[in-house]
Design a protein that fits this description.
Shape: elongated
Helix content: 40-55%
Strand content: 25-35%
Largest sheet: 5 strands, antiparallel
Radius of gyration: 26 Å
Length: 207
């Protein structure tokens, strides 16, 4: 009788431990899937509609959390067939990103490591010098705030010429938004040590 009770207790304990382990594993995978979906949505919105979280800190945090969690999930469940397949797909994608002169790979690295500072113009507009590719020329992006999100509504060249001298956004002393009669245009006045430059920026109404 005692042997039967002991066997029953051991089976119950083992079954309970296995259930808890499976439940914990499922929760970890669910959290990882949620983070992956969030990163994918952020990427799609940025590439198609130029929408992202204000600044680039939140986007970078999401990316790095996903990156660290990917290593954790793949190595933790490496004995599972799906983890091996997923790991192989990720390695293959990294290899593919290295083929076209490493442009996609370096672009991702730049996004993850480079901090792009914004300059506030007023309560709803700020600008940032940025580039969507490591081989493309940078440009000044005009961004409008929407709660915790921002949207690119216009762009202009990154350099400013004054009396045959060229200046960048880091050289600017002040930026002022000028009044316009046309809501399809925005006029910004950039003041430098040697003078001022007024840029008229077309606003994309689809934005």
């Amino acid at each position: 009788m005692q042997v039967r009770k002991s066997v029953t207790f051991c089976f119950s304990t083992t079954h309970s431990y296995t259930s808890c382990t499976i439940k914990k594993m499922n929760n970890q995978i669910k959290i990882y899937i949620a983070i992956s979906i969030l990163l994918l949505l952020d990427l799609i919105l940025y590439c198609t509609l130029d929408i992202s979280f204000i600044g680039n800190l939140i986007d970078r945090i999401i990316f790095w959390v996903w990156f660290i969690c990917t290593f954790y999930i793949v190595f933790k469940f490496i004995k599972k067939k799906w983890a091996k397949i997923y790991g192989f797909i990720l390695i293959a994608l990294i290899g593919i990103s290295l083929l076209p002169m490493m442009v996609p790979f370096l672009t991702i690295i730049g996004f993850a490591l480079v901090d792009e500072d914004s300059i506030k113009i007023d309560s709803e507009i700020h600008i940032r010098e940025t580039s969507k590719s490591v081989i493309a020329l940078p440009y000044i992006s005009v961004l409008k705030n929407y709660w915790i999100f921002e949207r690119e509504i216009g762009k202009t060249e990154f350099d400013f010429e004054i009396n045959d001298d060229f200046f960048g956004i880091d050289d600017v002393k002040s930026i002022r938004r000028l009044r316009t009669l046309n809501d399809k245009k925005m006029r910004l006045e950039f003041e430098f040590e040697k003078g001022k430059v007024i840029r008229e920026i077309s606003i994309n109404r689809t934005q």
